[in-house]
Amino acid sequence: MAAGLLASCASDGNVSDKSYLRVAVIGADSVTMSFFSEEDEVVTVSADSPEEALSAAELRGGKKIFTGYTELVLLDGCDCTDTLERMLREWKVSPSCIVACPRGSGAGFLAARTAEELEGAVRVAQEQELIGRCDIVTVLGELLGSGSAEVPELSRDGFIGTVYIG
To answer: Which residue from 80, 100, 92, 7 is spatially nearest to 54, judged by alpha carbons?
Structure first.
């Protein structure tokens, strides 16, 4: 029985066999991803849906991508409600994942700023009560309820204000 338990644990693979998504910039026809890694790896793939983007990034990187620890999703010209529903349902991102919008090209953000800096800017704005809750569950609930939601807007310099999406 113990051997069966050990075998089932081993079948999931090692931690090093996966890439752990930290930030995703979802555009109308591309997705840029940044991972938890010392290399500050950033991958951009062209795709018609978040699912296609995930598959393409896995093929490119040669590793399965785990999305459960995703900290930040930047919506850049995509269908906000549909995208966030897919992020929760198919990518299974954390309910605490922050939703924001970039000013300018979202993909370029991850080259100019680290994922940690972007998330930190939102957290500081929340602590200073400049913005309210902007986790994916709250934002999606507002979109489904009223058709719009207020989210942080980020520039290459960090938090610059809020915008309405929907």
So the answer is: 92
C-alpha–C-alpha distance, residues 138 and 20, integer Å: 23
Residue type, 148: S
Name all contacts of 122-127 with Cβ < 8 Å and 24+ positions apart: 122/72, 122/98, 122/152, 122/154, 122/159, 124/159, 125/152, 125/159
Beta bridge partner(s), residue 162: 152
- Kindly list the domain boundaries of the chain, sorted by start residue: 16-165
Helix (H) or strand (E) holding 146: helix 136-146
What pLDDT, in 10s, does the model give residues 54-109?
Answer: 999 999 988 999 999 999 999 998 899 999 999 999 999 999 999 999 987 655 66
**pLDDT tens, 131-148?**
999 999 999 999 999 999
* Rounded Cα gap, residues 114 and 9, in angstroms: 33
